[in-house]
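On clarity, I found the account of how folds are encoded harder to follow than it need be. For illustration, here is how one protein appears when written out as sequence plus structure tokens:

:::
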Amino acid sequence: RYWPSVENADVPYDAYVDGAISKEGINLMNQLNNAGKPFFLAVGFQRPHLPFNAPKEFWDMHDRAKFKLAEFRERADNSPSVAYHNFEELRSYSDIPDIGNISDEKQLELIHAYYAASSYIDFLIGKLTTRLNELGLADNTIIVLWGDHGWHLGDHNLWCKHSNFEEATHSPLIISYPAQPNAGQTYNYPTEFTDIATTLCELTGLKVPVDFEGESLVSAFENPEMQIREGALSQYPRNQYMGYTLRTKRYRYTKWVKKSDGSHFSSELYDYETDPLETVSQISNPDYQTIKIKLDSIVQKRILIPSTQEKIEFKIWGINKQNDTIAITNSEINFDDEIRYSNTDGSLYITQVPGNFNYSVKSKGYQQVDQQLQITKDSLIRIYLQNETYNVSLKIVGEWNNTEISNANVILANQGKKTNNDGGVSFSEIDFDSYTVQIELENGFAQNFNNIEISSDTSIVLYVEEPTFDVQVLVENEYTSKGIFDVTISINNISNSSNSQGYTNISIPAGKHEIVIEHPNYSLITDSLEIHSDTLFNFLLLPSFSTIKFKLYENTNVPVNKATVTIVNDQQISNGLGSAFFKNYSTFTTYNFKIEKENYKSIEGNLVLINDTTINIEMETNPTAIDNFTENEDFKIWPNPVVNVIRFQIPEDYTFGQAKIIDIKGKTVKSISLNEAIIYKLNITNLPEGFYFLNVISTDNKISKQFVKKEF
């Protein structure tokens, strides 16, 4: 929004970019003329396009007072909203409002500016054609002038392009060439820009490439009353929809479809004989249903195949040895020296101008077909390719010693044969395909060679790997018979580690091999193995180091944390789960241990360590601050264990007493006075993890409950 949509500057014609383009076009024309060879030169101008900038002299050629606003500035009756837009391109300029209608004064200025920009480009084109004449090239040059689209100047309350209405899709096309018949006449039937390339091919004697969509307009130059195509197709999208519009001499039919699946969304139909301004869509008028159906059929066909030239469909089939026919995917079709390939159902569409053409069809595994085709109309060409078979010679060689392998069983295309003394074997009548060749040696070793394509008589040497076998090793603890994880097993210098079940797999050649089994906590094993087939070996390892785990608890399942556990001179403190670990202790050794914690009875003992061991010990408490307290079924606390807030309920006869939280050392860590309520809650977030007692004391009685405080 930095610039206005128009500019009227009193500057030379080449001050704007289009003037500079025309000067460069003339420079190129001079250079090409000096080269003395046929040339193709394209000169593209920006105007008349936003912003409408042109030198003042071209504004002065037009009197704004003589311009009129668009005659019809409403939406057409019965037309869908998808057909319209908010001309955002124009609104992006600083002198145009973001929303709403444009003032009449501004509309007239825009129309004036559009005409000035168009006159400016007319002048520049004149400079090009003048220079063409000055160079003596006009009698030997084809000139094509076209605009890439039309432009709304307020009709239908639209500006810019971006629509499928007449003003956006109808644009100039002028073709001039030496000795042109009927020069200067207007051709009043629909044409398309796709017609330009095909027309130039015919005028210059060039071959029209396969799949060009356009029609040649040469016959229209010769007879301007000759209708070459029934309608011109264009398209423009709107959000998730695509609009296809077909313009015939009398009608415009627009079909809107969903981009996602191509299904019909909406449509429009305008009759220019009765309604040249497109004020009413006749899509629902019963009188127009026949033409609507006809035009819709044309649009649907052109969506599928845009070209209106003669359509040639090839259907390529193959006939195998069983006389079955199958569609051939990716067969090569050489049509007039241009190569195309059939799709998954063996078909190929091409379009072409009428004439005589040579083509060939070939596909691996089938005999090639060469024929000639005369194109006069749409045609379906069915081609049946005859199956070919091939002779295949294989030689089987050992990769490890480069020696031919005799008496090996070889399977190809369900045929099984033995190799001779030279390692050779032959197969005949093999169809084209990709095969897996299976080879099995006398000792039982087998190897497959995949994706071997047979498409001709061929000789192939296959190098077989050294025969290897799958050796599976299981390592277990001799005392527990449990698999040992992360044991290093080495066979023939190939190493692997055991998984969580104690298994590992190693592929090694046949023969005698040394095995080494190592683990830092188990005794070393070395042994020899004789391998002749896939085998499982089981080894039992003696632990050399083990782990001792103490699990402390009281009252069956309550963990005892922060207890000191001593073995020899090592000490560990039990964690929140009541566990203490001692790692890497030599096996087959007796150890003394001692467990201590304040307010608990100490425990001493000894153990003989043979393997990883867990010792469960129940701790007994010393007398505590609750010994004189009684039990009461009406006294309840929850939750237990507790993290942040504990709730408790007291008997009715304990009201107006006191509640205290006592740690296991007998120290009061929190207290509150009781009132007439019987349910209370206490925030104990700041208390450390551990065991506590909730004591309630009334005038004559004392009751207590134990609970566990956890961190999370």
Summary: The two ends are 60 Å apart (CA to CA). The CA atoms of residues 201 and 207 lie 6 Å apart. The longest strand covers residues 310-319. The helical segments are 17-35, 56-59, 88-91, 104-134, 166-169, 194-204, 218-222, 289-304.
